[in-house]
């Protein structure tokens, strides 16, 4: 187990009689067991987010007969969670900056888990979609986990630990189809005059358990020391650092720091909720960080628009290419957009009998796309300290832009599978690293709000991307391809304009 106990701990006598800057105190608690545990907790939170967000891909086809869903109803259900996330993203940032990181994560994960369980026993479409909307509202606050994680780390380990989060997301993307594959094909049903419970209902419950379990584990964790100090809670900050020091040193040795340099207080307790929310937003966009806030919001918007515009389209595109391969003589190869425009409903689609069966190839394809993300998820943490967050973010956006543009030239479902994997690997890690950059660039009093507003702009982009792909997919599919590729290039260039993070971070005022 790696240990990094600072030399200042040994020479503690001279420190007892003078206050210590918080960054120095965090170095003095050492690096060890606690930090690996908090990485596990925050990483598992990210896995549960993947479960909650992507499980809808398997729920919709499995529940379409029970809820008698049309294509419109499916689209509404798919967008309900995003609408909830869009609303929640703005609110939870203020809660995280005024009430605490740990508090926000506990409430959000409980909301997600409990409303998912409630949706699993819903017998009406309207109740189910309402529960999914509230689940999205809760899960949107999970972006606070980046702030919570980074505020326990000294500068040496921040970028590496943040970059490991993508590996946890990838694990979630791989595990969701595995769980679905094990549960949904089962044919059991519990039915009486009040309730119908089938395999997909059980799948929803299984996807909710990680959120509830992690909320309970978080209750045993301390609040972020940087948040505590930013609120003027000096004694609680010292106790938090002592707790981490005991865990890392695995002994009862006393933590030598008894006084920490106090930042300006960020107490919002006298404000009403909505007044505080308004003031926090105005403070962010009128502070010296306003340009960085605007740029990061644009990056979130462009990158997330591109991601959701294409990633939700890949299964449909694969289906149309499979139709072309089945019913075409392959004498005249053509572009992907021409194949898409030629698509006609397959004969079995016209069968009036409702079919809620999911072909096994769907589970396999999604697993393959998730597995394809593993190499990038492993490479980034290994070289992040040498090359930096900005380098990998820019490379990710350029790589995903090229794969998006190349979609125009594909002519087979195999080529689509390869490009889908490349696009998912690069774009997902680019978005994750954008969150990492955001929490690195902003001081504690603005960090939660900045990350949440960036997420809000991302969800606006996701909704617009879905609308755009729906309008142009049949007649002018070159439009979403061009927009997606262009937005990723814009994101890459905007990342280059941001200040460097890590050891050379220029933001030194306030509590980092």
Automatic annotation (TrEMBL):
Keywords: Membrane, Transmembrane, Transmembrane helix, Transport
InterPro entries per record: MFS_dom, MFS_sugar_transport-like, MFS_trans_sf
Subcellular location: Membrane
UniProt xrefs under Gene3D superfamilies: MFS general substrate transporter like domains
UniProt-recorded Gene Ontology molecular function terms: transmembrane transporter activity
Membrane topology of this protein: Multi-pass membrane protein
Highest taxon of source: Eukaryota
Major facilitator superfamily (MFS) profile domain sequence ranges: 38-503
Primary subcellular site in the record, as a coarse category: membrane
PROSITE patterns: MFS
Transmembrane segments: 34-60, 75-96, 127-149, 161-184, 199-219, 291-314, 362-384, 391-411, 417-437, 449-472, 478-498
Gene Ontology, cellular component aspect: membrane
Family membership: Belongs to the major facilitator superfamily.
Protein name: Major facilitator superfamily (MFS) profile domain-containing protein
Lineage of origin: Eukaryota, Metazoa, Ecdysozoa, Arthropoda, Hexapoda
